[in-house]
Design brief:
This is Fe2OG dioxygenase domain-containing protein. By secondary structure, the chain is an alpha+beta fold. 35% of the residues lie in helices and 28% in strands. The protein has 2 domains: 66 residues, no CATH class; 160 residues, Sandwich (Jelly Rolls), CATH 2.60.120. Strands 1-9-6-11-4-3-2 form a 7-stranded antiparallel beta sheet. Strand 7 and strand 8 form a beta hairpin. Helix 2 runs antiparallel to helix 3. The longest helix is centred in the first third of the chain and has 19 residues. It is globular, with a radius of gyration of 18 Å. Bound molecules: fe (ii) ion. The site of fe (ii) ion has 4 residues, from loops. Fe (ii) ion (FE2) binds next to loops.
Length: 244
């Protein structure tokens, strides 16, 4: 059997299996699958034959959206919105930009980037009425997790390897506040939707990407000298759409 068929059959079997799992067991399965996808994409499985790697990657990438179900079926790439978001005013963006700069000295290193969590303005804007209305209309009910992180990739070599986020960031609104670069080579955000070409995003200041961060593997490639990136990330937990 070709690896794509095998992957699809495996994904179907995992989806069937998940209907018998408790919510906690399903979370564990999701976590295992996302770790597996991230591992293969990061090149940590080079000792395994290529065909087997492809099958494993295909099975994990196809399984995650099946396990999450619900609104995600409308968005096969995991992307809900890309561009200048109607739910953020110029005033919101200016306030976030200001707070992001103010929070930089207190940001802590997390893996290969810097994070400042739960600043007051970011938290407040993450639960604003326009955002709640947009999400409700486009993806159905979501629970704000009050997770609002300022992210900084402002030294050479910072980035984040392919991964899938956990429940607090099931749905992620990622907004670029500033991307400065002194050379044409630039860090980019890459999404790896199952069975499709990778999607490369070069967000400009003020632009947002709304996507299902728990079902689509994503990464930020490494910054180069002279590059400074500041983002704000709002996390939401999607409700309904599980197998219960
Ligand atoms: Fe992420």
């Amino acid at each position: 059997m070709a690896s794509a068929e095998e992957a699809s059959a495996l994904a179907q079997r995992l989806s069937q299996l998940s209907t018998d799992l408790t919510a906690a067991e399903r979370e564990n399965l999701k976590f295992l699958l996302s770790m597996a996808a991230g591992g293969v994409l990061s090149g940590h499985a080079q000792q395994i034959p290529e065909e087997m790697r492809e099958t494993a990657l295909g099975a994990t990438q196809h399984s995650l959206p099946k396990l999450l179900a619900g609104a995600r079926e409308k968005f096969p790439t995991g992307v809900v919105f890309y561009g200048r978001a109607p739910f953020l005013s110029d005033g919101d963006l200016a306030a976030l930009d200001h707070e992001s700069r103010a929070c930089r000295p207190g940001a802590e290193r997390f893996l290969d980037h810097y994070v400042s969590s739960s600043a007051a303005m970011a938290r407040e804007i993450s639960i604003s009425q326009p955002i709640r209305a947009f999400l409700n209309e486009n993806v159905g009910p979501v629970a704000p997790t009050r997770r609002a992180n300022y992210l900084y990739y402002d030294e050479p070599g910072l980035g984040i390897d392919p991964h899938v986020d956990k429940d607090e960031f099931s749905l992620n609104i990622l907004t670029m506040l500033e991307h400065r670069a002194s050379s044409p080579q630039r860090s980019e955000l890459i999404l790896h939707p199952p069975g499709q070409e990778a999607m490369h995003f070069h967000l400009r200041a003020g632009e947002s990407l709304v996507f299902f961060a728990d079902s689509v593997t994503h990464q930020r490639t490494r910054t180069v000298a002279g590059e400074e990136i500041r983002l704000v990330s709002f996390g939401y937990r999607t409700l309904g759409g599980t197998h219960e």
